[in-house]
Amino acid sequence: MLLKIAVLPGDGIGQEVTTEALKVLKTVADKYGHTLNYEPALVGGAALEKEGVAITEATLDLCRASDGILFGAVGLPKYDNEPMERRPELALFKLRKSFELFANLRPVKNVPMLQNASTIKPEVLAGVDLIVVRELTGGLYFGQPSRRYTDEGGRKAVDTMPYSEQEIERIVRVAFELAKGRKQKVTSVDKSNVLNTSRLWREIANEVHRDYPGIELEHLLVDSAAMMLIRKPASFDVIVTENLFGDILTDEASMLAGSMGLLASASLGTATNAAGGQFGLYEPIHGTAPDITGQGIANPLAAIGCAAMLLRLTYGLEKEASDIEGAVLAVLEAGNRTPDIYETGMTKLGTTQMGEAVANSIRG
Ligand code: IPM
Ligand code: MN
Asked: pTM to 2 decimals?
C-alpha cells in the first residue's frame, strides 16, 4: 500500500516527538511492505518565522494531496501577546476548519504498569478505558464576534459560542456509533443549567438517542463531569462534548493514563481519501512544552500512538496499528520510561531512545 502522509512537526517538542513517530511509521511500513511517501512542512511558530504565516496555502495544498496528516504541536511563548492572525495556533484552526475535522477522538486507557505514574490512586484507575469525542470545529473556538475592543467603559473583549443542530447531531452520532463497538454507553457533557447552547445540545443528544435504543445515554454537567473523571473514571465509556469542554476535560483525563505524553488523538471529518479510508489529522494532545524543549526528554509515546491511529483509521491497517501499540506495551513492560512517567527501579530513556526502543520491538 502507498502511504501518502503530510508531516507537520510544528514547534517545541512537536519536532522531537514527530521524528520518533515517523521512525516508528517507517519501521512498520518496511516490515509490512508498504511504501511510505511523506512530505514535511512547517506550521506554527516555525512557519511564522520562515514563511510569515502560521500555515501557507502551499502547506494546505500538500495536506489536501495527502491521505492524512501527522501533526506535532504548535505554540510558543513569544507569541503570547499576539492577535490570532499572528499566532502559531492559527495553523491548527485552519487545518481543522479547512478539512472540516469536526470529530476529535481522544482515547484514554489506563495501563496497569503505569498506575503508579499517575497522581491518582491505582484502585481508582483500574479498568479505565474511555474515549472523549470532542467537537472540534464549532463553539467558542470559531464563533463570531470574537474580538477585543475599547469603549467608554474601558477595555473589553467578547467571544461567542454558537452551535447549530446539524453540528451537534453529527458529533453526537459519532459518539453513539463508537459506543456500539464498546461498552454501549454515551455520556453527553454540557452546562445546560446555564447555557442555551447546552440546552440545545442536550435536546439533540436525546433525539439522536432514539436511533440507538441499545445504547445508554447519560447527561452530565461539565463541572460534575470534571469531578467524576477523578472520582469514578472507570464508569465512563464514550464522552461527547463541545469544543472547549472537551479541550479542558481531556487534559484532566490524560492524568488517568499517567501523563499528557501518552495521549494521542485523531481529528476526523467527512472526507475520505484515495485509500478509501478517512482523511484525518493525528495529533498528540500535549502541547509544545517549552519548558522541556530541546532537552531530549519529551515522551514520544503520544506521537507514536498517533501513528497507530493513522494506520488504523486512515488506512484500515489494523494489524500494523496493533503492532505499534503492542510494541509500546512491551517496551513499558520491560521497564523503560521517559522522565514524565519514571519510577525508581525503571530504566530512564530520552525521546530518541524511547522511539528507538519501540522501533526495535516492532522489528522483533
Ligand atoms: C489541543 C490544544 C489546542 C486546542 C491548542 C494548541 C490551540 O490544546 O489540541 O487540545 O485548544 O485545541
Ligand atoms: Mn488542549
From this structure: 0.96
